[in-house]
Amino acid sequence: MTIRNLESLFSPKSIGVVGPDRIGRRAIEVLLDHLVAGKSRAPVELIGLDVDREGLNAVASVEALARAPDLAVCVAGPDEAPALVAALGAKGTRAIIFLSQGYQAWPAEALTATLRAARPFTMRVLGPGSLGLIAPHVGLNASLAREAPKTGELAVISRSAGFVNATLAWAREHHVGLSAVVSLGQKADIDIGDLLDWFAGDYRTRAVLVHVETISTPQKFMSAARACARSKPVIVMRPGASRDQKGVGVTHSGRLATIDAVYDAAFQRAGLVRVDAVDDLFDAAETISKVKPGASRHLAIFANGRSLATIAADKLESLKGSIARLAPETVDALKSLVRAGTDVAIPLVLADDAPPEVIAQTVTVLAQDPGVDAVL
């Protein structure tokens, strides 16, 4: 179903918090605090909840609504879900989040009935077992998360509520803003592929950080991942290799292959940047959030050693990059700076013990050449 009706999820015109309450009064209060503090322009209405909150309109049931909310944030359980989805869909709701403080797996029958009720209205379902969704650019915090991120350019996708909370704490600690945070939960409808499709076209998002354990729709994921990675960096972390069942096939390749190796190959083929540790994930996120890439086409490379310069030039060539061609005046200015006996051409080789002053002067000369877009 891809991105159909996801605009109701990320930028709703109105929001309804729908009961009956199955997550507890304290969690409800956290949710309402977030919704009010988020300063979204979308009005919030309480539906079927025994909660009083100053400034928020409340109605006894979905049937009592004059107009259904664009986005429903549902705190009910699996038993009530199908009927609520059918009633909300009939009135015009096009997206619903089934909230939970931690991961919650519904029985297969309830899940099937809920999706069947949503289908006639093309209603999108986030969860169940979702910690919620945060879209700082529109002031939306429909979540039970502990932190409220500031506005930025990094989108976060994860099934795990614990991972979402850890990421939000890290973002606050490092002053990194986020464009969106989505907790997937059980992924009954909306999955990683849908969200990658959405963020590929989201101008507010410059990079996407994905925490994934399993992929249930590989073809859909690969198509979305390729499309998104063409336009912006996608950083992925996939834990669980230690829990993967090793290959038990009757062929040699079946016995040698591991599930994680398959994921690794798929991520590489789709153009995703894979990291193995939480620190690496955050380091990559920080680099993407704080370093603005330039429009570099012609690269000047220099090093205080021929081997280092050659390694960089080889890598540039493998990436189909272009080495800068130096202007005659640049060549003249560099003759006294390069290692004796070497050509003044990219990659430049300085003396092994080139002092900081020579390195600084080399950078200055190269940066002034109109044929040089960037210096390594």
Question: Could you describe the 3D structure shown?
Answer:
The chain is α/β, with parallel strands linked by helices. The protein is built from 13 helices and 18 strands. The strands form four sheets. Strands 8-7-10-9-11-12-13 form a seven-stranded mixed sheet, with helices on both faces. Strands 3-2-1-4-5-6 form a six-stranded parallel sheet, covered by helices on one side. The two termini are 44 Å apart.
Features:
about 375 residues; about 35% helix; elongated; 13 helices; alpha/beta
Indicate the radius of gyration in whole angstroms.
26 Å
Order of strands, widest sheet: 8-7-10-9-11-12-13
* Largest sheet properties: 7 strands, mixed
The share of residues in helices is: 25-40%
Task: Write a brief structural summary.
This protein is of the alpha/beta class and 376 residues long. The protein is built from 13 helices and 18 strands.
Q: What's the layout of helices and strands?
A:
Blueprint: H1 7-10, E1 15-18, H2 25-37, E2 44-47, E3 57-59, E4 71-74, H3 81-91, E5 95-99, H4 108-118, E6 124-130, E7 132-135, E8 140-143, E9 151-158, H5 161-173, E10 178-183, H6 192-200, E11 207-211, H7 218-231, E12 234-237, H8 252-256, H9 259-270, E13 273-275, H10 278-290, E14 298-300, E15 302-303, H11 306-318, E16 322-323, H12 328-334, E17 348-349, H13 356-367, E18 374-375
Parallel strand pairs: 1-2, 1-4, 2-3, 4-5, 5-6, 9-10, 9-11, 11-12, 12-13, 14-16, 14-18, 15-17
Antiparallel strand pairs: 7-8, 7-10
